[in-house]
Design brief:
The complex is a heterodimer. By secondary structure, chain A is α/β, with parallel strands linked by helices. In chain A, 36% of the residues lie in helices and 23% in strands. Chain A contains seven helices and seven strands. In chain A, strand 1 and strand 2 form a beta hairpin. In chain B, helix 9 links the parallel strand 9 and strand 10. Classes of the chains: A alpha/beta, B alpha/beta.
Amino acid sequence: MKLVASCKISNQGVFLNSKLVPNTKSTETNWKKELYTKTGVTYPKFYKMDALAKLAFLSYSYLDKALKTESYADNDIALLFANAASSKTTDLKYIESYKEKGSPSPSLFVYTLPNILTGELSILNKWYGENVFFIEEKFDPEFYLEQINFYFSKGAKGVLAGWVESNDTNEECFLFFVENNGNELTIEELTNLYKS
Amino acid sequence: MGRKTTLEDNLMSIFITYGALITPLGNTTVENFNRMLKGDSGVSIIKDSGFNNEDWPLGMIKSIQDENRYNKLLSDLCHQLIKEHGKGLFEDEKTLVVVSSTKADINALPNDTFASTRKILNDQLGLKNKIIIISNACISGVLAINTAVDYLHTDKYDNVVVIGIDALSDFIVYGFQSLFALSNEPSKPFDKERKGICIGEAAGCVIVSKKRLNDSYAVNYLGGSSSNDANHISGPSRTGEGLFRSINKTLERSKVGKAEIDFISAHGTGTNYNDEMESIAFDRLGLNEVPLNSLKGYFGHTLGAAGVIEVISSMKMMEHNIVLKSIGFEEQGTSKRINVLKANLEQPTNIILKTASGFGGGNASLILKSVL
């Protein structure tokens, strides 16, 4: 499998293929909204998204510039996502809506599933491929490489893989796109990309 | 890393056998099926279960009194697994566990809601490998079985224990209530008068293996897949696109023709839009005549458990060559006509299609064949 591109975002900035994109580091608590305006992308749905979906959308907006996904058929790109905290940030907000704010919020409830972000990315790109969301204790490169090989063995041509986390102390999204040809991506390389 | 899979691996036989089953209808696979044969439903009115103290019909396991329903349910499932299969299978280095759950121990918040899953399974089953957890809304159970098969195509594992589990919580009931998706009477999937979902709780387990485990009934897994609707995060596609594509892919991978399918275990939640979407997808595939049911009327919609417990129930139907009726269905209520069963149907049931659809636009399916 060949790595096509990777992108990691947090309030420390956007790292596209491990290189910091200028002016993307932020000290704002609202750094995702700030970053959205910097992407230059117009996608009003962004404002309705929860933290996980926003992180995935923003990271993908940068990654997309380094991809040529138009050459793929709409069934051929599979999505492989994982995190540790599931939809914790939104779960807590939703609980607050019925415990403290009077009634359960339907708009928060629909985001209390981590895989909603794979739906958002599929809608954005009109991708009908395979999707899965795993709960893992930490980013495990070996796990990703194994799962990607499963997808390739079943006929996927490209895999968009991601680790998207939103909890009390950390907000980050690491995305990478791989193709089913070329040199093997190694565990070490993937570990280093994630750490960038 | 496991080695890359080859064509030969993909043609390898995969067996599925019964693990364990705890639902509102009973505490073993046999007990559940005996009650299903009689047409019993595990859905009952639960006082004050709604946000404004409404009495919603829910699939509640009455024997669970503990405050922490999820942990108790998972622990009970482990007891049943050890009782029926011994500990050796779980302690084996070539056994992997894949769990399907949407919310797990949601009451643990703000702490890790999946921590108890790992702890209970490791403590009680003595597992040697990292537990794989899938949380992908209502298609999680079918995805978990598909994932189990992926792992068996490597040389790392001989058996994969797939557990599907979700418990009732205010979190879930209030959420579906806020979406106006709950039915105030037992749900009626695919019926003209259907009003929505009845939430349920359950834990089920199947053992997916490279070799037939024992003398008990087994099916072969022929193929499976998933596909996203790319349409809406909480509303089903109006054309059934994702489900249509997933079933097509699964048929292709299974090398099974449409005419060979004896029975469809559909998702059938009982909401207007979902059931309509499924009928459209089945119609587009020309599967209108295939006997079909939704098992949500028996257990309620058990979310992350649904795919697994419905596969177990379908295996029982294959074993006994009978397709169970779709409880709550009386009159065709979808724009496309499909063959939803009003009465149990005795017929040879060798090849079945299981489907699931869920929030996030996910659709998944798999095909099983009876081992004669």
